[in-house]
């Protein structure tokens, strides 16, 4: 992967990270601004369900941020774009679709097949 491509993915990852952080700040503001002291039990239950869903989404995004940070570290160390399992280059199309990918498409497919076999036991 050349420097221009690495720079492109670095900017993409940084922008993605900033979007997630901005959304998280908005969520915190919304959750703090809303009151769960609703008189109607159905309204309160609906509000609590919405809050729980939002918090679950934020937790998933928190985990995604750690993957983004790991990808940024791999860019800095020169390991970005190479499969952790085989050492082969990961296709640009795969990285475009999933910039945090650590496995080539073939290695990912093998990994998922192994997971499925072990999960069915």
UniProtKB/TrEMBL annotation:
It holds the Pfam family zf-dskA_traR. Belongs to the DksA family. It is found in: Cytoplasm. This is RNA polymerase-binding transcription factor DksA. PANTHER family: RNA POLYMERASE-BINDING TRANSCRIPTION FACTOR DKSA, RNA POLYMERASE-BINDING TRANSCRIPTION FACTOR DKSA-RELATED. The gene is dksA. Residues 102-121 are annotated as: Disordered. Residues 5-75 form the DnaK suppressor protein DksA N-terminal domain. One of its GO terms (biological process) is regulation of gene expression.
